[in-house]
Write a structure and sequence with these properties.
By secondary structure, this protein is of the alpha+beta class. The chain has helices at 6-14, 19-28; strands at 2-4, 30-31, 42-48, 51-62, 67-79. The protein has one domain (2-79).
Length: 80
């Protein structure tokens, strides 16, 4: 299960990334890395309209759900 952080929700709105596109990036995207990623962080990306849209996730735990989750930390876009 993936949960959006407050920052990732803002990124999603600012970049006009739909929930369906977000799911596609996570499930079908390619591995993504950059020099700003911290240890344990995982990245996924797709190419769309001449840009790379990427998602950064970190493993976490939800006490309200009482289960391990992936926290969506950041959603970003770069030119090719």
């Amino acid at each position: 299960m993936c949960i959006l952080s407050k920052d990732a929700l803002k990124d999603m709105i600012n970049l006009d990334v739909s929930p369906d596109l977000l799911e596609t990036i996570i499930n079908e995207g390619k591995d993504y890395t950059d020099d700003k990623m911290s240890m344990g962080e995982v990245g996924r990306s797709i190419k769309k309209r001449g840009n790379i849209i990427f998602v950064k996730l970190v493993p976490s735990y939800s006490y309200s759900l009482d289960e391990n989750i992936w926290l969506i930390k950041h959603i970003g876009k770069r030119g090719k």
